[in-house]
Specification:
There is one protein chain. About 40% of the residues lie in helices and about 15% in strands. It is built from nine helices and ten strands. It is α/β, with parallel strands linked by helices. Strand 7, helix 8 and strand 8 form a beta-alpha-beta unit. The chain folds into two domains: about 140 residues, HAD superfamily/HAD-like (Rossmann fold); about 60 residues.
Length: about 220
């Protein structure tokens, strides 16, 4: 059983079940702007590339000239509601406690402000060395430079570093940097696409990974 030297976690759909609040945030924005709201499944497909892309996709090409306004409206709405329905994914604390000696980092395309606020609000900040959000560096997943920074900082070998996520950008970031990848199939990401990416490991739920790696 492999012993990990560094665990890198995605946030939305991996550690937290935040889909409903994100969907409500987008539809709240659209309603406030007098635009037609969208189906939940459609909005889910927009998630994963950061707030700018989320809002751009929700607006659609005809309304992109209102992007600056939309970003402000979304941030205001989501800022008031980001913990209305968001909870930890099932088994998250079991996993975090199972690897007490392994450094853990959150790497997300969500803003640092909301990421930290949610992690603190749900009581799991203590498990992580740091949180790297969309505005922490000048690039986002799947750019490998964030992971390169982490490998150097924590002196972790690629073959013993694992990226855990539910989206294509998580798996691609791992592949682009030569580290191991674990795809979660029950998150916000598209299941078929995740399977096509051929991650190193697959789990239906995050709790399953406890049996794959050496913990205590």
């Amino acid at each position: 059983m492999k012993k990990l030297e560094l665990m890198i976690f995605d946030l939305d759909g991996t550690l937290i079940d935040s889909g409903k609040d994100l969907i409500d945030g987008v539809n709240g924005m659209l309603k406030s702007m007098g635009l037609q709201q969208k189906a939940a499944e459609e909005i889910k497909r927009y998630i994963g590339d950061g707030v700018v892309k989320l809002v751009e996709r929700a607006l659609g090409v005809p309304n992109l000239h209102r992007l600056e306004e939309a970003l402000a409206v979304f941030s205001d709405y989501y800022g008031k509601h980001f913990l209305d329905n968001t909870v930890l994914c099932d088994g998250v604390e079991d996993v975090l406690r199972a690897f007490p000696k392994t450094p853990k980092v959150i790497l997300t395309n969500k803003s640092s402000f909301f990421s930290l606020a949610i992690v603190r609000g749900l009581g799991i900040e203590k498990y992580f060395e740091e949180i790297i959000g969309a505005d922490s560096m000048p690039f986002l997943k799947p750019d490998p430079r964030q992971i390169e920074y982490l490998l150097e900082k924590y002196r972790a070998r690629r073959e013993n570093t694992l990226m855990i996520g539910d989206g294509k950008n998580d798996i691609l970031a791992a592949k682009n940097s030569g580290i191991l990848s674990l795809a979660l199939l029950n998150g916000l990401g598209d299941r078929r696409m995740l399977l096509e990416l051929k991650a190193d490991y697959y789990c239906e739920t995050i709790r399953e990974m406890v049996s794959l790696f050496e913990g205590r």
